[in-house]
Amino acid sequence: MSVYLRLLQGGGVEGSSGSPVMLSNIGMYSDKGGNTIMGNRLKLLGVLYAGPQHLVTGEIRIVAIPTAERSISVAGIPNNLGMVIRASRILDFEPVLKERRGTTKV
Known about the structure:
The protein has one domain (5-101). The chain contains 1 helix and 8 strands. It has one helix at residues 94-101, and strands spanning 5-9, 20-25, 28-30, 36-38, 41-50, 53-60, 71-78, 81-86. The strands form 3 sheets. It has a 4-stranded antiparallel sheet with strand order 1-8-5-2, with no helix packed on it. Strand 3 (28-30) and strand 4 form a beta hairpin. The chain is flat and about 60 Å long. The relative contact order is 0.28. The mean pLDDT is 79.
């Protein structure tokens, strides 16, 4: 059984889930054997699923009017990673999509 997800360095921006992740070689590329191939290659690697982030907290200080209340800011910082559903496993989701759609046609 192959793995459903792969990790991509250089993740997407917020809202880009569902975007295709493509491999594009223009002019020449190397094959698995290390041979140089002249030509172009375009390949679907998968679909962007999520981008992990780490949370940071910071303190917001109000200098002009001091108060007893304390406000904390929380922000998500992207790790420049993306979780990608492998292209070879996309059709495994067909039954789930049919069920959610309420029909047998996709």
